[in-house]
Amino acid sequence: MQWHLGWELMSTNISSSTPSAPAGNTNVTFQTDGSGNISGYMPSTPVLQTANSVDLTAQAANIAATNLVASPTAGMYEIIIYIIVTQVATTSSTLPSVVITWTDKDNTTSQTITATATSGGNALTTFATARVTVSSSTAAIQYSTTGYASSGATPMQYALHIRVESLT
After folding, report:
1. Which one has a higher pLDDT value, 44 or 58?
2. Fewer CB in 10 Å around end: N or C, the chain?
3. CATH number for domain 49-166, candidates 3.30.1490, 3.90.550, 3.40.228, 2.60.120
């Protein structure tokens, strides 16, 4: 190692061996050509990209079909869903199910899946979670809830959180 005008000069060792990257990081592969030029590249592998998210609180009714991704790029998507009671009803309640609707990329037919079931637990510990993978065309991916019920002067309220990640 040499010091020159405040810069530290080091020799570069370009070899075919690559040490392991620290956890949560990706190695960059370096190469050199016959003229001594060095370049770096990373393998082109899919990287999860959030296509959209929904964070709703204080919901006290069913949610009609709503665009989750209005104009998706055709491909694979993972949808992560979390729904939880945030206020219990005076007497009883039903946490609604979450429904995902999309048009399949391969057969261009509208598809629907009930991602979470309804739950009659009228408690702050009542929740549901799901992961759904879809192969979508360029038509909208939508979500809705169905089956909400609440009895008594104080209505049951819930929060709904959804993340959509592109897998392609």
Report:
1. 58
2. N
3. 2.60.120
